[in-house]
């Protein structure tokens, strides 16, 4: 957040960028954000991201820095680590990863050797790019092998997982997802990993806030070795990554983040993460997280009432995936564009074993964290489901889309964004 004086100065120094900022703010206010990985950061986070902490170099860790002048940076990083440990019941926390991708890279590079085998979820079944996509550098450095979901019910098939693990002997089993709409019992993963002597890592980037609020299961409670999460998705913090691990891996993880992978941490981000972990421990955040889940269930139910086909037939978390080909006879890219025209921001999504290419996949992914942060509830989810179904049935009809866009704007105008 900036004062009006600061904004006037920006407008004078660089009006093009100032106008783009105003445009983006207006877009975020008027549109409805349904991408499950996006959210509105807490206003305190926006304040700290634009603060003097951005000026400071703090290579090293609290009490062991390379440069002087670390009184306040040591204080915020210690608070951030202690709060993260308490929030997630972890033995050790590293708050320096610049974002989710370097966070996962730091774990792989810190605990394994290049060429080692990592067992992770198939990308089309909900895994993330950083779980060894062939186009990623990690996919070239490590030998990633895959498990899939059960085609009959969309859940993880643990017999299949065990068979792949026995055959491939991974050194690390990774679970976690970007587009899997279910929860799982982490003890099932742990059992398989223990059988083959592998380490366990849960990448809970999407649901970190829901785990912090204790409305979804915490993998660390099931004895996982490492848990990683972004801080900017359901947690509503700054863009960044957080690594939590058992004490026995603390030195390896810290050395892997710095000096292994990164230089100076972004201390404005660390300060914002510290306040995020404090806010996420409050009762109000638990209410928020419960509503995120209730809204996802309500949105799923309202869509299914309109004969919309959802991957796995529903949701246990904050996200859902529509099979747009089966439901509306259009691919996910066409669906995403149609919803953009009525003010709903979503993203096209591959579905399990998708026959269609990633830029024209068969699905569309939706989530409720951002809409819930605006204060929306059950009634609004029903209205959103109606707009989605009408927009995707309209097949591009301009008059219908204009009327639907007006409905979206009427809805968003009643729910202002905190801090915008
Ligand atoms: C978003 C996400 C990441 C990567 O985060 P970035 O900050 O975009 O690099 C990693 N893993 C999972 C499961 C994610 O959903």
TrEMBL record:
GO BP annotations, alphabetical order: glycine biosynthetic process from serine; methylation; tetrahydrofolate interconversion
Matching Gene3D superfamilies: Aspartate Aminotransferase, domain 1, Type I PLP-dependent aspartate aminotransferase-like (Major domain)
Family membership: Belongs to the SHMT family.
Protein name as it appears in the record: Serine hydroxymethyltransferase
SUPFAM superfamilies found in the cross-reference section: PLP-dependent transferases
GO terms for cellular component: cytosol
Domain annotation Serine hydroxymethyltransferase-like: ranges: 10-388
Locations listed in the record: Cytoplasm
GO MF entries: D-alanine 2-hydroxymethyltransferase activity; glycine hydroxymethyltransferase activity; methyltransferase activity; pyridoxal phosphate binding
Reactions catalysed, as given in the entry: (6R)-5,10-methylene-5,6,7,8-tetrahydrofolate + glycine + H2O = (6S)-5,6,7,8-tetrahydrofolate + L-serine; (6R)-5,10-methylene-5,6,7,8-tetrahydrofolate + D-alanine + H2O = 2-methylserine + (6S)-5,6,7,8-tetrahydrofolate
Known role: Catalyzes the reversible interconversion of alpha-methyl-L-serine to D-alanine with tetrahydrofolate (THF) serving as the one-carbon carrier. Cannot use alpha-methyl-D-serine, L-serine, D-serine or L-alanine. Catalyzes the reversible interconversion of serine and glycine with tetrahydrofolate (THF) serving as the one-carbon carrier. This reaction serves as the major source of one-carbon groups required for the biosynthesis of purines, thymidylate, methionine, and other important biomolecules. Also exhibits THF-independent aldolase activity toward beta-hydroxyamino acids, producing glycine and aldehydes, via a retro-aldol mechanism.
Biological pathway: One-carbon metabolism; tetrahydrofolate interconversion; Amino-acid biosynthesis; glycine biosynthesis; glycine from L-serine: step 1/1
EC number: 2.1.2.1
Organism: Parvibaculum lavamentivorans (strain DS-1 / DSM 13023 / NCIMB 13966)
Main location: cytoplasm
């Amino acid at each position: 957040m900036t004062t009006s004086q600061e904004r006037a100065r920006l407008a004078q120094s660089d009006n093009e960028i100032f106008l783009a900022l105003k445009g983006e703010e207006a877009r975020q206010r008027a549109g409805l954000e349904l991408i499950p990985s996006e959210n509105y950061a807490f206003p305190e986070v926006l304040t700290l991201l634009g603060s003097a902490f951005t000026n400071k170099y703090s290579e090293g860790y609290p009490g062991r820095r390379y440069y002087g002048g670390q009184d306040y940076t040591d204080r915020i990083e210690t608070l951030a680590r202690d709060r993260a440990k308490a929030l997630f019941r972890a033995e050790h926390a590293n708050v320096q990863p610049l974002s989710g991708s370097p966070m996962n890279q730091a774990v792989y590079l810190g605990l394994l050797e290049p060429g080692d085998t990592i067992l992770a979820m198939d990308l089309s079944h909900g895994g993330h790019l950083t779980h060894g996509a062939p186009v990623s550098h990690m996919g070239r450095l490590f030998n990633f092998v895959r498990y899939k979901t059960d085609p009959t019910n969309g859940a993880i098939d643990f017999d299949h997982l065990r068979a792949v693990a026995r055959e491939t002997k991974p050194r690390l089993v990774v679970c976690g997802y970007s587009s899997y709409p279910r929860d799982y019992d982490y003890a099932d993963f742990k059992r398989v990993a223990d059988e083959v002597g592998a380490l366990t890592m849960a990448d809970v980037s999407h649901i970190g806030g829901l785990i912090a609020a204790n409305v979804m299961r915490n993998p660390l409670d099931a004895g996982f070795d490492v848990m990683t999460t972004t801080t900017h998705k359901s947690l509503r913090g700054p863009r960044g990554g957080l690594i939590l691990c058992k004490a026995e891996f603390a030195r390896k993880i810290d050395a892997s983040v710095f000096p292994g992978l990164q230089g100076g941490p972004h201390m404005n981000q660390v300060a914002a993460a510290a306040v995020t972990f404090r806010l996420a421990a409050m009762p109000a955040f638990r209410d928020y997280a419960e509503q995120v889940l209730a809204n996802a269930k309500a949105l799923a139910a309202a869509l299914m009432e309109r004969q919309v086909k959802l991957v796995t037939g529903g949701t246990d978390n904050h996200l859902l995936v529509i099979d747009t080909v089966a439901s509306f006879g259009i691919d996910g890219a066409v669906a995403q564009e149609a919803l953009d025209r009525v003010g709903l921001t979503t993203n096209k999504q591959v579905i399990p074993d998708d026959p269609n290419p990633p830029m024209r996949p068969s699905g569309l992914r939706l989530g409720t964290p951002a809409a819930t942060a605006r204060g929306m509830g059950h009634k609004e989810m029903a209205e959103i489901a109606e707009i989605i179904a009408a927009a995707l049935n309209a097949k591009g009809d301009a008059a219908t889309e204009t009327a639907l866009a007006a409905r979206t704007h009427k809805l968003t105008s009643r729910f202002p964004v905190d801090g915008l």
